[in-house]
């Protein structure tokens, strides 16, 4: 075939292909073929088997007006392109066939005039393309919504960084480079934002030592600083107090560092902080600070000696109940009591060290607020008090067992159970009160009773 459309091969295809072959070729090349009259009546339909429009629906089209198979907007387009022009070759047109059930089938037609003013319409199914376009539109809308949410978040973040009163610095925990700062810290350090961003903490502060003699900046960046650390500004005698928490953002770790000017702190607060730090480090009393669920945050040297723990690393990711005599039972009682009263005094139990040796202790605890989280401060004191409360089996003496045995055969089982239920109930309440040192709130939590129910039973049994 030459560029001008004439066949130069010497073979006339019109002589080689009959009508059936032409119809088959057109059907394979198109998804839907329509032959319509000059008035719009469908005279012939040929369908590719892969077309999505149901076959039985298309079979009803023959003899109907083509407009009846189209949606409203497609009817106007068909009239303008096909019936109001006499051109032999008609520009491609996209029409939507409707099934009367709010479902459309988009078809792209190439139209040509044939004999007797009829129009041949060769259609290609656009359903797949329409689905792709719809998916792309949905993705574009979702991306736009995500951008809007990101802009809102960034605006809120900038407002907090601009108007927040606490001097804050965001630092890359792995590299030590300053990522962002707020306005308050610029005033505190008397620096411009451009001079701080990108610098390492070692360039801003002299490397000092914390209370354990470790590199203060390294401990701060590792997230292991349980107490504020003192830093000094490079090139000056000014000292600041730094506290920080590590946060993970996707795959990166950031240190949110709060800086306080030591000179501007209340002297009484500074003295109190120093005194409490000294008490924590040097006290003979065992002091433990945990998260609200009992997970260790830190402990002083006295506790480490009492439990024969070598260092704080051994306590990481562990709970206090691992060292309590009754394990999770003790911890649950303490936490329940703290939840109700915020403090607990002289809770008696035992403490196990690393080698299983037990010692009697009294536990006092208080729930406190540390920066942005609730924590629990435990004070554990060794005692030489009375022996541990008896176990339930100690109450079932030989005399009690004999008394129950004498009932068998004299009364039925239901009566025996009724008579012994009160004995067992009294025994359980008595044990709970002994275990909690007569702390009725803790005893009620241990027994799964309300405080009112426990008070009633205590009066009933004269305990």
Tell me what the structure shows.
The protein contains 17 helices and 16 strands. By secondary structure, the protein is an alpha+beta fold. The chain folds into 4 domains: 15-125, PAS domain (Beta-Lactamase); 164-266, PAS domain (Beta-Lactamase), CATH 3.30.450; 283-382, Beta-Lactamase; 392-461, Arc Repressor Mutant, subunit A. It has a 6-stranded antiparallel sheet. A 5-stranded antiparallel sheet has the order 2-1-5-4-3, with helices on both faces. Helix 15 (413-435) packs across helix 16. The relative contact order is 0.05.
Short description:
It is built from 17 helices and 16 strands. By secondary structure, the chain is an alpha+beta fold.
Element layout with pairings:
Elements: H1 13-16, H2 19-29, E1 32-36, E2 42-47, H3 55-59, H4 72-83, E3 89-98, E4 104-114, E5 118-125, H5 127-163, E6 168-172, E7 178-181, H6 183-189, H7 193-196, H8 201-204, E8 205-206, H9 216-222, E9 229-233, E10 239-249, E11 252-261, H10 267-282, E12 286-291, E13 296-299, H11 301-307, H12 328-341, E14 343-352, E15 358-370, E16 373-382, H13 392-395, H14 398-407, H15 413-435, H16 440-447, H17 451-461
Antiparallel strand pairs: 1-2, 1-5, 3-4, 4-5, 6-7, 6-11, 8-9, 9-10, 10-11, 12-13, 12-16, 14-15, 15-16
Helix pairs in contact: 12-16, 15-16, 16-17
| SS summary, helix count | 17
What is the top-level CATH class of the largest domain? Alpha Beta
Number of domains: 4
- What percent of the residues sit in helical stretches (DSSP H or I)? 25-40%
Task: Order the strands across the largest sheet as they lie in space.
Answer: 7-6-11-10-9-8
| First-residue to last-residue Cα separation | 112 Å
User: What do we call the CATH homologous superfamily of the largest domain?
Assistant: PAS domain
Instruction: Give the beta-strand count.
Output: 16
State Rg: 43 Å
Give me the secondary-structure category: alpha+beta
Q: Low-confidence parts, pLDDT < 50 over ≥5 residues? A: 386-398
Average of pLDDT: 78
What oligomeric arrangement do these chains adopt?
A: single chain
The CATH topology of the largest domain comes to Beta-Lactamase
């Amino acid at each position: 075939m030459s560029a001008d459309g004439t066949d130069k091969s010497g073979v006339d295809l019109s002589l080689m292909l009959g009508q059936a072959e032409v119809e088959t070729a057109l059907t394979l090349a198109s998804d839907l073929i329509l032959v319509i009259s000059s008035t719009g009546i469908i005279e012939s339909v040929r369908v590719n088997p892969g077309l999505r429009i149901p076959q039985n629906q298309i079979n009803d089209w023959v003899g109907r007006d083509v407009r009846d198979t189209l949606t409203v907007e497609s009817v106007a387009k068909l009239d303008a392109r096909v019936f109001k022009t006499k051109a032999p070759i008609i520009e491609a047109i996209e029409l939507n066939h409707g099934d009367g059930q709010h479902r459309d089938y988009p078809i792209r037609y190439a139209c040509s005039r044939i004999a007797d003013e009829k129009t041949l319409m060769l259609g290609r199914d656009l359903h797949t393309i329409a689905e792709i376009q719809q998916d792309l539109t949905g993705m574009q809308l979702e991306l736009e919504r995500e951008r809007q949410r990101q802009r809102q978040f960034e605006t809120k973040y900038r407002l907090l960084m601009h108007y927040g009163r606490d001097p804050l610095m965001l630092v890359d925990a792995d590299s030590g480079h300053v990522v962002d700062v707020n306005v308050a810290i610029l005033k505190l350090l008397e620096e411009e934002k451009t001079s701080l961003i990108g610098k390492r903490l070692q360039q801003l502060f002299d490397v000092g030592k914390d209370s354990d003699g470790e590199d203060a900046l390294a401990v701060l960046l590792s997230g292991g600083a349980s107490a504020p650390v003192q830093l000094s500004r490079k090139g000056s005698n000014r000292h600041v107090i730094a506290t920080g928490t590590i946060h993970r953002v996707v795959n990166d770790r950031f240190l949110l560092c709060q800086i306080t000017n030591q000179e501007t702190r209340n002297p009484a607060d500074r003295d109190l902080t120093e005194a409490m730090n000294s008490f924590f480090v040097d006290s003979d009393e065992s002091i433990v600070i945990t998260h609200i669920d009992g997970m260790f945050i830190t402990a002083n040297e006295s506790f480490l000696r009492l439990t024969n723990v070598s260092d704080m690393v051994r306590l990481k990711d562990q709970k206090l109940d691992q060292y309590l005599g009754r394990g999770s039972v003790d911890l649950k009682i303490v936490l329940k009591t703290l939840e109700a009263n915020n403090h607990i005094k002289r809770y008696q139990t035992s403490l196990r060290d690393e080698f299983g040796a037990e010692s009697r202790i009294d536990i006092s605890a208080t729930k406190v607020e540390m920066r942005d989280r609730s924590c629990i401060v435990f004070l554990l004191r060794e005692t030489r008090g009375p022996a541990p409360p008896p176990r339930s089996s100690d109450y079932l003496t030989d005399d009690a067992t004999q008394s129950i045995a004498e009932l068998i055969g004299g009364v039925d089982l239901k009566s025996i159970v009724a008579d012994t239920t009160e004995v067992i109930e009294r025994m359980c309440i008595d044990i709970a009160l002994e275990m909690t040192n007569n702390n009725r709130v803790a005893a009620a939590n241990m027994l799964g009773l309300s405080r009112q129910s426990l008070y009633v039973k205590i009066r009933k049994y004269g305990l």
